[in-house]
Amino acid sequence: MTKPRHGSGDEPTPDTHDQPPSYSTQGPDIPAPPLYDPPLYNPAQYSQPASPYGQQYGYQYGQQYSSQYGQQYPSPYGQPSYYGAAPQPKGLSIASLCCGIAIYLGFGFFILPQLAAVILGHLALRREPSGRGFAIAGLVMGYLGLVLTVLAIVGITILASVAGTSGTI
User: How many Å apart are CA 67 and CA 119, to the nearest integer?
Assistant: First the structure.
């Protein structure tokens, strides 16, 4: 004799027309359950307790960095909010570079940009280590502008003296 195999059609089919068990409906003698009323949110229930030591003096976490670097956003979880060092100033270095560029744009005739580029370049080398490249570029252009200005003045003086002496015949 062979055993019936699953899926071969030999097993009996379940009766799918059975009714689910009937539950008795709520009668007039059983009271209805109360309607659900959610509790109101009370923020004081979830806040931190007051400090037993009174008011804290000094900085709270995160305030020392936000006031120093001008950050406006509060830090979550009471952690210090520090997003990196602020960029170091390069004002003197950039001013030296700009004066050095101004020499070659035609303003070197007045000798002021040459002097400003040299002075600001030396100040920037001492005070701003992060702007060293700009300061050196301003110094090079300033000194080169001074040399060219001196050569131009000497050349113009020689030409004026030669022109003045050759006109007397």
Answer: 34
